[in-house]
Design goal:
Helices cover 30% and strands 17% of the residues. By secondary structure, the protein is an alpha+beta fold. Helix 1 packs across helix 2. It is globular and about 50 Å long.
Length: 109
């Protein structure tokens, strides 16, 4: 639910790293307010958009043109260059291979 990850999943950047840099440089708004924090938590219903001044940015336009389909918990409007988090993703919808039990064991030391 971090802003940089949601921007990446919406297809506004090629990689998470690129999304983080674009957020840090202020290319995105959340509910109409410019955001510079990649760690900002996105809530269901929040609208993430590319600023008007950034809509001609070459990297962003290229990423949107080559973006895969957004996950079902996100909606994206490529023509408006905006998207939103429809609902919180379920564990099965998150494409990260992780064994939670190993994390719990590590931090329980």
């Amino acid at each position: 639910r971090r802003l940089d990850n949601v921007a990446f999943r919406l297809g506004f950047a090629h990689t998470r790293r690129e999304a983080r840099q674009l957020v840090t440089h202020g290319h995105f708004t959340v509910n109409g307010v410019r955001s510079f924090s990649p760690a900002r938590q996105i809530k269901a219903g929040d609208v993430i958009a590319i600023r008007e001044q950034s809509k001609e940015h070459v990297q962003i336009k290229e990423a949107i043109a080559n973006a895969p389909a957004a996950p079902e918990y996100l909606t994206v409007d490529a023509s408006k260059m905006e998207g939103s988090l429809v609902k919180l993703p379920l564990r099965e919808q998150i494409p990260v291979q992780l064994e939670e039990q190993l994390v719990v064991e590590y931090y329980s030391r």
